[in-house]
Specification:
Chain lengths: ~450, ~450
């Protein structure tokens, strides 16, 4: 190992909210860039450090685990530092506070921008403008700045002001009608945020493209990621089927979009009920004839599998309901991990549909040291999901645990901005510098 | 369609020496170590990664999507296909439902802006040609089963000797190590295991996945980020390295709910249950309307905007709606839904979205591909692009993933025919006609 990180020495100002932006800056932080979150003690942006700054205690019960699952099932004193919905995205970042709605606060931001390489924001359209933060304003502070914006539908056109989370713009791009069960209406679909994944990762990629370009040309620039347009790639098959063939695709549930069968989710032996999240399922996908032959062996070569209708992929695809029921009858009495081992031993793609808590017991993730133990003063010590890649020479390290609100005030004001003690004190007295949201903030 | 900016093609014997010398002197003259000989040419800086060559051994979806992103922003991506081609050529949708290897819409989308070289890596000449190409590459990306490239004598150790600053990205289902190293997988298997699929669907039913191969496209984006990281480490510090990417881990570590479900459990011992995003009061979830459906998930975070959308801003003063806890009360939810469902059903999805936009309510109509294709917003912004393909003719496809002021996305060439550039690329690399024929095997386009 060399001690170097790919993006060390680059500083990125993080004005991000919700998931798509913070995921991008998290990835850039994982690659070694210095990420500085700019936070405001007087403004709590919902869905960034939680739904509310100081939620009523009873809300814990009503919220699902991924938003209500706070340490020891209590909100505690500073819930914004450990919201399960967001806390994993706070690693490898620094945080300082300033009220950028006030002129002296905006000037602090201007000085930070002058010492940075990139400003990244994904707020609702108009939010930055209202604060006076435009590309021109940033360029006056720093001629070489790279400014990334992630408007839901872009900065032009009739939908430019539409408010959206990932789930809404995925609906517009067709995803919601393309997924879910075949026999229910789309209101049965769970809200998901795949567009945040795509736009977040590609936002990190965009920053690197712009930095690479700047190293050669000397010039910064403005990047726009219209998140809806960005999401389109994920639905390529459906889009291209329409542009090439005029065909409007609908959902096919868990079946394979290329018609390879069997492909499905089958019941495994379960230690408990779905209500207790203890129902177990296994996915099995025969991606070629060899896999089907393997599945027959894994099942112990039952007589029904020799049925002529299942001999070819076309036959298996046509008779998928019957085939799925027969496979399900085999899987139902076996453990999901045992099913995976039996299938994989015969070359059949298969794995448990894993409920999140079980990941921590998975032998593969353990063997690869995937999880990272992090201690944060407010939350305590827990294991978090690990990085997305293993670099041989510049490994991703979680050197900064999930950052607490205002944790790096001293560092940013004194070391980065070079504030005098007098000035720092004046800003403190004016309420800019804090590790708490103001008491007026709900 | 733009034509490709001419690349500085240098005779291979000269490539190492002369090219580097020229680059060095140019860099010295300009004082910028990032500049290479190529930037001495007219039209330099056209695209961000136009000084990068990627040797792309990946196939199927995730790897090719990553290298497509690099190619879209200027990289010279040489797609090395096996005789018979990338298996994605056999995956639909096909133009006119004709399963020709040159008519796959999926392959087309994934491989625009790349050149295709067919190499038979089972032959000595094929492997020699590959190592020759590697000498001129900045990055190699591969997605074969773990251990395969090593057995061919083309693994990390070999590549590292060929060119120390070169990085290799290996993309596999579960990673290069561990008990599942050799396990097979697919979109469904990977997403069900690594992604937060368990909590998608209805409690009493099986978990249900995303559409198509969305998860593999997500993974491809994650691979592209790693490629960027490897390029920076190589360029800035001369570090060549092997990057091991497990597709499963790109979902365990991804942003779409999985991290939150996992840490929520770590914190509290609570687990995610499958619950539909069904209409949950003060709108949350998906509602039927006159001509389809609209999604109002989380719109209730700003109730005053919803009341404004409905033309009843005074409801914001109603005490029964003021308390966020009271709004979750089943009786309130039922009362709310009774009127809201009627409001939706009397309006079209576009009418509802227009009202929601006016009042800044979070909302999205559920579009079909026909709705999307005809939509004026996306068309007006230049979302749809056209490419001319020698077999498929004019093909329409989604364009840029994001816009840059300079150095940005270009559609320079359509997806390549199988082996279309074998002779062109290997001639550039200085191979003789006989060597090329030996490396490529039978039936390659000249």
């Amino acid at each position: 190992m060399t001690g170097h990180k790919p993006l060390e020495g680059y500083r990125i100002v993080d004005l991000c909210v919700v998931w798509a932006g913070p995921f991008a800056t998290m990835l850039l932080g994982d690659l070694g860039a210095e990420i500085i979150k700019v936070e405001n003690p007087f403004v709590f942006q919902p869905m960034t450090r939680g739904a509310m700054a100081r939620p009523p205690a009873a809300l814990i019960e009503k919220a699902p685990a991924w938003s209500g699952g706070f340490p020891n099932n209590q909100f505690g004193d500073r819930p914004w530092n450990y919201s399960p919905t967001f806390v994993s995205l706070f690693r490898n970042k620094k945080s300082f506070t300033v009220d950028i709605r006030r002129p002296e606060g905006l000037d602090v931001l201007r000085r930070l921008v002058a010492r940075s390489d990139v400003v990244y924001e994904n707020n609702a359209t108009g939010t930055m403008e209202k604060l006076g933060i435009t590309y021109d304003w940033l360029r006056q502070a720093n001629e070489r700045i790279i400014f990334v914006r992630v408007p839901a539908y872009g900065s032009s056109g009739p939908y430019r002001t539409a408010r959206a989370l990932g789930v809404h713009l995925e609906g517009v791009m067709g995803h919601t009608l393309l997924r879910g069960y075949e026999d229910t209406d789309p209101s049965a679909n769970t809200a998901i945020y795949s567009g945040d994944y795509l736009a977040g990762a590609q936002g990190a990629f965009a920053v690197m493209a712009a930095l690479w370009q700047r190293e050669k040309s000397g010039e910064g620039q403005l990047i726009e990621i219209a998140q809806a347009e960005n999401a389109a790639a994920m639905f390529t098959q459906a889009i291209m089927d329409y542009t090439l063939n005029g065909r409007v695709q609908g959902t096919i549930g868990n079946r394979d979009s290329f018609g390879r069968a069997p492909c499905g989710v089958y019941p495994a032996q379960s230690p408990g009920t779905a209500e207790a999240s203890d129902d177990h399922w296994v996915s099995i996908h025969c991606t070629d004839d060899a896999a089907w032959e393997g599945l027959k062996r894994a099942m112990g070569n039952p007589a029904w599998a020799e049925d002529e209708r299942f001999a070819s992929n076309a036959g298996r695809a046509t008779n998928f309901r019957e085939l799925d029921a027969l496979i399900g009858a085999w899987t139902a009495s076996l453990d999901d991990y045992e099913l995976m081992r039996r299938c994989q031993a015969e070359g059949v793609p298969a794995a448990p549909v894993l409920e999140a808590s079980r990941a921590f017991d998975d032998p593969q993730l353990r063997a690869r040291n995937f999880f990272r133990r992090q201690r944060q003063a407010d939350a305590g010590e827990y294991e978090y999901m690990g990085p997305m890649w293993q670099f041989g020479e510049t490994p991703v390290e979680f050197s900064q645990p999930p950052v607490m609100f205002g944790e790096h005030n001293d560092y940013v004001y004194r070391e980065v901005l070079g504030c005098s003690e007098d000035e720092y004190q004046r800003l403190k007295d004016a309420g800019h510098v804090s590790m708490e949201y103001d008491a007026s903030v709900r | 369609m733009h034509t490709a900016p001419r690349r500085a093609t240098v005779k291979p014997e000269a490539a190492g020496g002369a090219c580097r010398r020229l680059g060095a002197s140019f860099a010295a003259r300009t004082g910028n170590a990032w500049l290479t000989a190529q930037h001495n040419q007219p039209g330099a800086f056209m695209q961000a990664f136009d000084d990068i060559t990627v040797l792309d051994l990946t196939c199927h979806i995730a790897g090719p999507y990553a290298t497509r992103l690099l190619a879209d922003f200027g990289a010279n991506v040489i797609k090395v296909e096996r005789p018979g081609g990338d298996p994605a050529r056999a995956l639909g949708p096909f133009q006119g439902d004709d399963p020709s290897p040159e008519k796959s819409g999926l392959f087309f989308y994934l491989n625009c802006n790349k050149r295709s070289v067919v190499l038979d890596l089972k032959r000595e000449a094929g492997r020699a040609a590959l190592l020759h190409l590697a000498e001129h590459a900045d990055l190699v990306v591969e997605s074969s089963r773990p251990g395969v490239i090593e057995r061919l004598g083309l693994g990390w150790e070999t590549l590292h000797q060929v060119k120390p600053a070169l990085s290799l990205i290996s993309v596999s289902n579960f990673g290069q190590t561990g008990p599942y190293r050799d396990y097979r997988a697919s979109e469904l298997v990977l997403y069900g295991f690594g992604g937060e699929m368990y909590s998608m669907g209805l409690t009493e039913r099986e978990p249900v996945k995303m559409a198509g191969t969305a998860a593999l496209f997500e993974s491809g984006s994650a691979v592209a980020v790693a490629a960027g990281g490897a390029l920076f480490a190589s360029k800035r510090f001369g570090i060549g390295q092997w990057v091991d990417i497990s597709l499963a881990e790109t979902h365990f570590g991804g942003v779409d709910r999985r991290h939150a479900a996992a840490i929520g459990y770590q914190f509290s011992g609570r687990k995610m249950v499958r619950v539909a995003g069904a209409a949950a009061g003060l709108p949350g979830g998906i509602y039927a309307c006159a001509d389809g459906y609209v999604d109002f998930t989380n719109a209730g975070l700003y109730p005053e905007r919803v009341f404004d959308m409905l033309g009843s801003p005074e409801w914001a003063l109603d005490p029964k709606y003021a308390d966020p806890l009271n709004r979750l009360n089943p009786e309130i939810v039922e009362e709310w839904n009774a009127s809201f469902i009627v409001w939706c059903i009397e309006r079209t999805k576009r009418e509802i979205w227009a009202e929601a936009r006016r009042a800044k309510v979070m909302c999205g109509p559920l579009f079909t591909m026909a709705d999307l294709y005809e939509d004026e917003h996306f068309r007006g912004r230049g979302f749809w692009q056209k490419a001319l393909h020698p077999v498929m003719g004019e093909v329409e496809l989604p364009g840029r993933p994001f816009t840059m002021q300079t150095g940005g996305w270009q559609l320079r060439r359509p997806a390549p025919l199988l082996g279309e550039h074998t002779y062109e690329v290997l001639r550039e690399a200085g191979l003789s006609e006989a060597e090329i024929a030996a490396a490529a095997g039978e039936g390659v386009l000249r």
